[in-house]
Amino acid sequence: MPFYEIDGIKPVVHPSAFVHPEAVVIGDVLIGPNCYIAPFAALRGDFGRIILEAGVNIQDSCVLHGFPETDTLVEEDGHIGHAAVLHGCIVRKNALIGMNAVIMDNAEIGESSIVAACAFVKAGMVVPAKMLVGGMPAKVMRELSDAEMAWKIEGTDMYKELTRRSLNSLKICTPLSKVESDRKTFNLPSNKPLITFKKQN
Question: SUPFAM superfamilies recorded for this chain (predicted)?
Fold first, then answer.
């Protein structure tokens, strides 16, 4: 099981959330409705509290942690990309943190903002709403377009659907030795050929 208590404090997970069995959730972690926690994510509530509001997704290999007397908060519909690190920070409603980005202590990412992949947001930085942030160290680059904000919402909605799919159908299985002739796939155009394994001599 991926859940651990420490000093008598146990994680709290809403029944509609999905936490992958290979994620690790420790201590003072509150996971709200319809959240998705991917494989190898580590949510360590062993010093400060971690709070995920409704509809948040925490993708593969993310790390969430904080110092004592601090909360790490991701508000509703926060979208945390693969291998991002959040440490004692606040991610406001509908914001996106790109892959491999690092958000340091007491930083605040404004509502509906996007932090670019690999950005380093210094401790205490406050990002206004609806901004694109990037760089090492990160700087506010410009205001987001309507198209960019719509793209973010579409991506987060896909993870909400993945939460439902995972709760309904994800299970351990034995792999097949060959590709079935009628194999299903995800959103594959009907005119795209199916790639199969080459025959071995």
Answer: Trimeric LpxA-like enzymes (SSF51161)
Residues near 1 by beta carbon (within 8 Å), at least 6 away in sequence: 21
- Could you give the number of structural domains in the chain? 1
Any domain includes 130: yes
- Whether residue 141 lies inside any domain: the answer is yes
Cα separation of 99 and 74, whole Å?
16
The pTM (predicted TM-score) of the whole model is: 0.90
